[in-house]
Amino acid sequence: MFEGRSVIVVVPAYNEEKLIGTVVATMPAIVDRIIVVDDASTDGTAAALETMAGAGDPRLRVVRHAKNGGVGAAIVTGYKAALEDARDNALVVVMAGDAQMDPEDLPRLLAPLAAEESDYTKGNRLRSGEAWKIIPRHRYLGNAALSFATKIASGYWHVADSQSGYTAITRDALAMLQLDRLYPRYGFPNDLLVELNLYDFRVRDVPIRPVYNVGEVSGIRLPRVVPTLSWLLFKCYFWRIKEKYVIRDFHPLVFFLAMGLVLTVGGLLLGAWILYYRLTAGSLSPNTVIFDAFCLIMGMQMLFFAMWMDMEHNKGLK
User: Fold this and answer.
1) pTM for the complete prediction?
2) pLDDT digits (tens, 9 = 90+) for 237-251
3) Is 149:233 a contact under the CB 8 Å cutoff?
């Protein structure tokens, strides 16, 4: 229990035979329920979990996938199991099975939820001065780029470290989410933020300690993941705009966004044609170049206005 509220921890695990025991063994006493989702591991994870379950820890519940679905799918399974077990005021946490999430940070994630100051809290490893030294440089830079893209896609401009999976959510908020439509793999935390914004849930960043080199093996391949997540965030942004500002409650930023896209894309295409014509046929009227510059400037201004309106609309969701 934490301040009178039960705490359930969901642990997605895939091929974590070396560290899953550490994760369960170091779970703080404030945790009432531990739900480990074995995402069809091919190593000794299942055997390790069987041993722990046989040891008689009453808090432990193991759920197994027959087929690997990805970390997002494992978390969704854990969330559904948590909703079955949870009391009305329960808090549901996600901690990875690779021991990269410090249990001592858990009370800081739970405090804003217990105080009803937030609906969802997310660990942020980037606020610490240690992050630049501890996190591998390529992953730090990739994370920073995806975090910026996630700000735009989700509308939570105050949230950073979008790839951190150390999170906590209230049962009431979790019960409202459409879990089955969330992205099942590494883009899950990004997609979840978009879903949370749709319901105007309050999200808070909580500084946590970055943990690396404890024996974990990362399955993330940035050359493949970054393009995939970039495309996911592109789709999520326009889906959120449609759902939130067109279908549910019309907002004038839609006009600025639409005109901004038309003028910017049109200006870029016209600019490419001007360059091609200049290289192949010779000079053309200066008025054409001025008109193209006007389209690009106006288009960019309208896009920035739409972005600013989105920021203003969501600034209260902290």
Assistant:
1) 0.89
2) 999 999 999 999 899
3) yes
What contacts 40, CB < 8 A, 6 or more positions away? 14, 64, 65, 66, 67, 68, 69
What proportion of the chain, given as a percentage, has pLDDT over 70? 93
**For residue 79, which of 179, 192, 228 has the smallest C-alpha distance?**
179
pLDDT at 140 over 60: yes
Residue 67 and residue 81: Cα distance in Å, rounded? 18
* Rounded alpha-carbon distances, angstroms, from residue 53 to 25, 284, 311, 316: 12, 78, 47, 44
Amino acid found at 308:
W
Q: Which two tokens stand for residue 139?
A: 């992953």
> Which three-class secondary structure state does DSSP give residue 34?
strand
- C-alpha neighbours within 13 Å on the C-beta side of residue 33: 23
Among 112, 134, 150, which Cα is nearest to 236's? 150
In the numeric block, the tokens 């091929």 are attached to 15
Q: How many CB atoms lie within 10 A of CB 298?
A: 15
Strands (E), the chain: 7-13, 33-38, 60-64, 91-94, 120-124, 167-170, 203-207
Helix then strand then coil, % of the chain, to nearest 5? 55, 10, 35
Residue type at 120 in one-letter notation: Y
- Can you give the pLDDT at residue 219? 55
Sign of CA dihedral 56, 61, 66, 72: negative
